[in-house]
């Protein structure tokens, strides 16, 4: 950013032009989407951070992997909980560890995208596979809620 | 960074669940997120992704935000990180050219955009404090391209010869507005780092 001499009329005009123009350049939808993000604060959950993503592996490894049905595998972990995911074309397969029954919901920026039951062994198959970025909210029968980081398909 | 009591107040209210305060925060800082994204030449859909991630992170981050005054810096740095993450995941390769480019140090970009954002906000506030007449004249002069003097003369019903002096007078008033007077003890130190 160029230094600005506040006493120079030409520079002041230029700075003002930049300031006035920049107010109009941000699309309304961009701002509105930001405002909508506030609804996430009502989710009181344990945050599980991404600890493994097969997309981190080399391109060679990805090529080998893509021959099997599993396109991508991810692991999210928080204190005491792990959520392992396999993103297949047909479903998001997941394993909650320690195993516990409950429900799982994929939430995108606009709200719920898909919901499925988690069985007694902690396994779930979520359909349809979301096509836009989402997070999983796993609610275990014991009352614990686990929220994964963002997953970009 | 200047301690802005408004920001502290907005953060506190948003943290307590006030949606209106959150909306104001987003309106205030969306241009900052936007301009950082522009530095990485992101297309609009990618900018939307980054924007979403930044705001959602901020929602999570609000309760733990110890120094609300440091918010602009946090937003700029987080936006930058999200830009890198997006570039990395879409290309599945490290953004070597961006990260390792010697003439674009990362924190310099974030800091620069924070200062630019602050400067723009101050100038807009100062502009809004001017008389209607000065606002119209300066708006015409800051068009791109600038409105010619003879057209200004026709539209404002003033002699061409008075436009130059009025321009200087309005700029002086702009410098004397409370918003810019706040920086009177040294705007140069603020922008020159």
Assign the CATH class of the domain at 5-104 in chain B: Mainly Alpha
Strand content of chain A: 35-45%
The chain-level mean pLDDT of chain A equals 83
Low-confidence parts of chain B: 92-96, 186-193
**How is the quaternary structure best described?**
heterodimer
Distance between the termini of chain B: 12 Å
Q: What's the CATH topology label of the largest domain in chain A?
A: Immunoglobulin-like
Q: Can you give a write-up of this model?
A:
Chain B: This is RNA polymerase sigma factor (Sigma-70 family). Chain B: Keywords: DNA-binding, Sigma factor, Transcription, Transcription regulation. The complex is a heterodimer of chains A (153) and B (193). In chain A, strands 6-5-8-9-1-2-3-4-7 form a 9-stranded mixed beta sheet, with no helix packed on it. Chain A has 2 domains: 9-38, no CATH class; 43-148, Sandwich (Immunoglobulin-like). Chain A is 22% helix and 37% strand. Chain A is elongated and about 75 Å long. Chain A is built from 3 helices and 9 strands; from the N terminus they run H-H-E-H-E-E-E-E-E-E-E-E. With 153 residues, chain A is α+β, with helices and mostly antiparallel strands. Chain A has helices spanning 9-25, 28-36, 59-65, and strands spanning 46-53, 72-78, 81-87, 92-97, 102-108, 111-118, 123-126, 135-140, 145-148. With 193 residues, chain B is mainly α. Chain B has a domain at 5-104: RNA polymerase sigma factor, region 2, helix turn helix motif (Rna Polymerase Sigma Factor, Chain: A, Orthogonal Bundle), CATH 1.10.1740. Residues 92-96 and 186-193 of chain B have low confidence and may be disordered. Chains A and B meet through helix 1 and helix 2 of A and helix 2, helix 3, helix 6, helix 7 and helix 9 of B.
């Amino acid at each position: 950013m160029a230094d600005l001499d506040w006493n120079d009329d030409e520079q002041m005009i230029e700075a003002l032009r930049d300031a006035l123009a920049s107010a109009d350049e941000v699309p309304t939808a961009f701002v509105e989407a930001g405002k909508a993000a506030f609804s996430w604060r009502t989710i009181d959950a344990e945050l599980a951070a991404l600890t493994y993503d097969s997309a981190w592996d080399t391109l060679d490894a990805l090529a080998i992997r893509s021959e099997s049905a599993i396109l991508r595998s991810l692991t999210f972990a928080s204190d005491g909980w792990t959520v392992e995911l396999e993103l297949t074309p047909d479903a998001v397969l997941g394993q909650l560890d320690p195993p516990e029954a409950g429900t799982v919901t994929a939430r995108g920026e606009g709200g719920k995208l898909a919901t499925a039951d988690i069985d007694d062994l902690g396994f779930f198959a979520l359909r349809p596979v979301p096509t836009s970025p989402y997070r999983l909210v796993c609610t275990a029968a014991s009352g614990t809620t686990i929220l994964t980081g963002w997953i970009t398909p | 960074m200047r301690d802005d009591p408004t920001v502290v107040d907005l953060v506190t209210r948003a943290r307590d669940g006030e949606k209106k305060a959150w909306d104001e925060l987003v309106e205030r800082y969306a241009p900052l997120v936007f301009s950082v994204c522009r530095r990485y030449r992101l297309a609009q859909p990618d900018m939307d992704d980054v924007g979403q991630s930044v705001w959602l992170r901020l929602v999570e981050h609000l309760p733990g935000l110890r120094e609300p005054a440091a918010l602009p810096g946090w937003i700029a740095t987080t936006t930058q990180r999200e830009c890198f993450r997006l570039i990395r995941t879409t290309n599945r390769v490290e953004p070597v050219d961006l990260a390792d480019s010697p003439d674009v140090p990362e924190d310099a970009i974030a800091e620069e955009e924070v200062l630019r954002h602050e400067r723009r906000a101050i100038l807009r506030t100062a502009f809004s404090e001017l008389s209607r007449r000065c606002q119209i004249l300066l708006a015409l002069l800051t068009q791109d391209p600038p409105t010619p003097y003879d057209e200004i003369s026709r539209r404002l019903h003033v002699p061409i010869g008075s436009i130059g002096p009025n321009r200087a007078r309005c700029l002086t008033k702009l410098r004397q507005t409370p918003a810019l007077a706040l920086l009177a003890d040294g705007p140069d130190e603020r922008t020159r780092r």
